[in-house]
Amino acid sequence: MALRLPGSKLPDVKTTIFTEMSLLAQKESAVNLSQGFPDY
Predict the structure, then answer these.
(1) Within 13 Å and on the Cβ side, how many CA atoms surround 4?
(2) CB-facing half-sphere around the CA of 34: CA atoms within 13 A
(3) pLDDT digits (tens, 9 = 90+) for 1-40
C-alpha cells in the first residue's frame, strides 16, 4: 500500500512576514523581535 501524503493547506508564498521583518531589522540595526524574545 502506497503512503499518501496530504496536500499543503498553506498557499505557495515566497516571502513571509518573518522574512520581511528580519530584513528590515537587519537593515536598520534594530533588535529583531519578529521571531521571539532577545536573549540577553
Answers:
(1) 3
(2) 13
(3) 788 988 887 778 788 888 898 899 899 999 887 777 766 6
Q: What is the pTM of this model?
A: 0.53
What does DSSP assign to residue 37?
Answer: -
| CA separation for the pair 13, 30 (Å, rounded) | 26
* H or E stretch covering 18: helix 17-27
Buried/exposed 21-36: b ≥16 CB within 10 Å, e otherwise: eeeeeeeeeeeeeeee
CA angle 36, 19, 16 (to 5 degrees): 100
